[in-house]
Amino acid sequence: MRLALDSSGFLGEVSISFWIPTAVLTAALVIKLPSIIKMWRDPMLRAVGGLLLFACAVFVFAAPRTIAWTNRVAGVPNISAPLVYSLLTALCASWLLLIIAWRNGRSDRSAQTRRVTRWVVSIYAGVVAALWVLFALADVPEERLRDLDTYYANTPFMREEILLYLVAHTVACSITARLIWNWIRTDGLDAWLRWGLGLLGVGYATNLFFDAAKLTAVVARWTGHDLDWLSTNVAPAGACVSATLVAVGFIVPHVGQYLHERWHVRLRHRGLGPLYQLTRTVTGEREPFAPHAPAELRLIRRETFIRDALLQLSRHLDEDLRGRSYEAALALGFEPGRARALAAAVTLLDAAGGSRPPRTDGAGSPSGPDTTYLLQEIQAVSQALRHPDDITAVRARATAPAESVPAHE
């Protein structure tokens, strides 16, 4: 954004890129589009789709070049005014519909919810119809690309049209911002959702600056003063900032959750490293390597490789050693979950030849070794392998001669 001061000290002409918020809004729409198409019956997703679509349309058709093109194609001076006002009014309705869907939940289909939805649609559809009627009655022959609101602020019917769309916009912004901030204060929200709602709340609140600047400039015209710079410079800047915040607010929960899941998958893959190296040494094989495979697929392949190798080792597991190691870990002060992982690590190293040659006489019990824990808790066992000192201490205590251990232990 480029701001310049004129010689009188007031804000001069402002060059604002309407395409920046348009690009961000389009990105948000593209990200949400697959979910919207897949779950079209979900009222919340429909409201999100409508909101982003109308927001994009508002900025596209509110750009001065698009305004001039629309007027030229239609052959009617300032015909773009009711078009932009109508798109903005539809955007306001989509804000309220989204809040209704969010507040009442995805599964809510109560008569009250349907009634409120119909009221919102009916009222804002009526506002759109009134905007076109008022424009048809108004006399606005001179094309204005940037200052139409203030230039025609005293023109009969156009005056009422300008006031109508601003009031409708202000009401929708106020209600939406208030409900979002109330929602943010509730417990149990996902951190990414809370951040997204915070950006949405700030975005809708910033929209009120747009309304305040526009209304102040219009009222100044009614009283014979000139504060047009508020309408032509400050208000569009506020609208661009607001739209960008709203778009980012929709993007953050989706992208944030996506990145969080990818990072969690990578951490799990890395966490299995020690156990993978152990099983790789035993089997003499490697997991399938695909550098361009998705992180989820690489994790599944590593988990599968490890479990297959553990099944091969299962006939060499010493269940008696695992039991003694578990008791030893508890005696050393480890909590039960950690103790089980350390005991499993000691047993695996024993079976793999880490402390002695692998057993070849079968399982330690007639029914065979219990591999349930090993196969289910490979992450915990792998983490235990990262602490060789703890494993050494547990093994030493578990394999100590019985007479060297006090009877009460």
Automatic annotation (TrEMBL):
This is DUF6545 domain-containing protein. The chain crosses the membrane at residues 16-33, 45-63, 83-104, 116-138, 162-180, 192-210, 230-252. It comes from the Bacteria. InterPro entries: DUF6545 (IPR046675), MAB_1171c-like (IPR050039). Keywords: Membrane, Transmembrane, Transmembrane helix. The keyword Membrane applies. It holds the Pfam family DUF6545. It comes from Streptomyces filipinensis. Residues 352-371 are annotated as: Disordered. The keyword Membrane applies. Residues 267-386 form the DUF6545 domain.
